[in-house]
From TrEMBL:
This is Uncharacterized protein. The chain crosses the membrane at residues 337-358, 370-392. Keywords: Membrane, Transmembrane, Transmembrane helix. Gene3D superfamilies: Magnesium transport protein CorA, transmembrane region.
Amino acid sequence: MWNSHNPHLDDLVLTHEELEKVLSDQGPSLENDSNESPETPPKFLLISVFGEPESGKEAGNKLLARTKSLNKLLHLAGLRDQRHVSRFIDNKIPCTYTHVEYKADGETPASLTVLFLCPKRSNNILGAVRVDIKTRNCFAFISSRFEGDSQDIISRCRRNVDLLQINPLYLLMFIYENRIQRWTDWFEESWRSIIEAETVTDMILPQWRLTKKQLDTISDSDKLLTQLHKTHIELSNSHGVISFGQAFGDSCIKAAIQIEDYRKSLGYTPLPTRDLNGLEEDINMMHSQSESMKSRMTALSSRLSGMINVSFNLIAKRDSKVNVAIARLQARESRTVKGISILTFSLLPATFLATLWTTNLFQLEGYKNWLVFIGSVLGLTLFVFACSYVYGRVARKLEETRWPDASIMDTLTSLPPA
């Protein structure tokens, strides 16, 4: 908890019982007090809770607040109707909207609450900021997934107490600054991933190349494509996140203008134009950073698309070289097999006849025996080669006729004329 007016309540860590007691003590002073002058500097109370309401069953992400304390927090934030509480807690879609609370007459606005849920990738900051119309007393409730985000927002509030006394909605601008910082870190991660891939594939200018110490190891094409795909997913989500940030800033400006319009209609002194424009100028500066980041992300998306296409082409080129090498090896092996086949065809008839000659089935004398043997070997060898040649020709013709027949069988039957 952080209180801008009470040093004893500055940056306290409260138990559930202590939180309930503080809310009971501080709550009435923050609500609309008819005895308090509209010119009195507004009070400001900020309570941050860690966790995600919509994923409270998950370990480590459970909202660290009891139901009774949470209901009290939301009551002070202006959510008196259970329908509004359910819409705020159960919502999982990034959004920013305002809720106006009226007095008993149903016509006089009493307070305005800005409710917001930042996108998942921005580490889930959920909050409600209630500003009293008459006194500008502000009660803010923030639920962040990580403690560092809440501490950063509180430190910004502590450094700019004077701005919060002018307009409590400067808290929303501090939250916007925190989100811009987180989104910038996210953008740098995606940028670095693309530069790493471009360095590995040697598709980047020398002055942008990373050194070996800066470069993470991408040892093979699978890791490279995996990293490119992850980066593509991150950049695909970036435009929606940045667009939400800009809508969040616009909602802050509209809420500030709406509060001053209500004060003017009720006869209270509105903020000087200088102070109101100061908040608008700060938010416009955040808008400018968001626009610059969006344009850079668009450029990175184009670079990433080209990188993915080139990577696939490089991998296909490498695979084609491997296939050519394999084809050469297969051709060399086929020539070896063909040579062995020719050698077998050449020696097999002679071996067969030599075996047959040793059985003494043929009784030929002297020189005539050798002439008959050699002539038989030559004739049988020529016959074997002739049979092999004829078989090859017939097999080729069968292959040539089989494939056209298969393609004809695979075609669709012609439709009858209309």
